[in-house]
Amino acid sequence: METLRAVIFDMDGVIVDSEPLHEQAFLEVMRDLGYGRNHGIDFDAYVGRSDFELWEDFIAKNKPPQSLEELMAMKRRRVTEVVQQLQPIFAGLPELLEKLAARCRLALASGSERSFIETVMSLKDLRRFFPVIVSAAEVEHGKPAPDIFLRTAGLLGVAPGDCWVIEDSKPGVTAALAAGMKVVAITNTHPAGELREATHVVQTYEEIGRLLLAAL
Hints:
Helix content is 43%, strand content 12%. By secondary structure, the chain is α/β, with parallel strands linked by helices. The protein has 2 domains: 6-17 and 88-215, 3-Layer(aba) Sandwich (Rossmann fold), CATH 3.40.50.1000; 19-86. The radius of gyration is 17 Å and the shape is globular.
């Protein structure tokens, strides 16, 4: 029997429609630094992974004069401004959180920096739903390693096998399964065929609600 005591949400691509905005911010920084499209980074390969990994690889390829911290700050400022302006929270997400919060523990496990997570959590009063928030900087290995989900389960006080994860990325699905958790993948970022390893693949938040409420 499938058990459910806690639901762990990814953030980018699940709570906030920010994946295209992260890429836009990265490309704008590249333009301003004079690289244009000659930056050597396949942005799609970093969806679901941390900014730290992307910028580490960029520095290894290009040896820029800017430090890792400077590059991350430049991109962070741009994406934060756009998200605060657009507030692109997925339709149906706040209503789903309301229903679930009354029935089980919720947490957030995101590859984004803590400052950006807090920016998103300030939108539509989302912070109140998440007593536990873990960022990639708080674990040794980012997704697709299971570290972030295992730490989140530990902070929730819930066994990994009793946690379900909501993800949109392939590294996220891999990480959740490696942690021994059920994972519901929503097709906000990738088509269903690329997410087929997930326990369930859905297209809408209504489907997620039906699955989780049935498990509860």
